[in-house]
Amino acid sequence: MNTDQPPERTPDGHHVVIRGRKWRATDPSVPEETAARLRRHLMAARRAVHSATTADDEQAERAARSRVNRAKIALGERGAPWWEQSDEERRHRWEEGLTSLDAEDDA
């Protein structure tokens, strides 16, 4: 896959196609700065999952997987489909997710 080009999207724009598999696309209404911050949280959480599984630390793995899930929900990639939510619900979803993930970093 060429990382210089965005992934293929389904005609409705709801999913991206990567290596022949459909994945829910990030909500396009998430402001780019917010989406970038959420992606940083997501990548850090994925690294934490890897570290926890390598260390065989089940508690740390559960916490890291919870962070992955919250980041993906905030991005609109999990949870209620973003195309079925009002603009207010969508904004609330990503703001709440980012606030939660930022607060955990500050703890």
From TrEMBL:
This is Biopolymer transporter Tol. Residues 84-107 are annotated as: Disordered. It comes from the Bacteria.
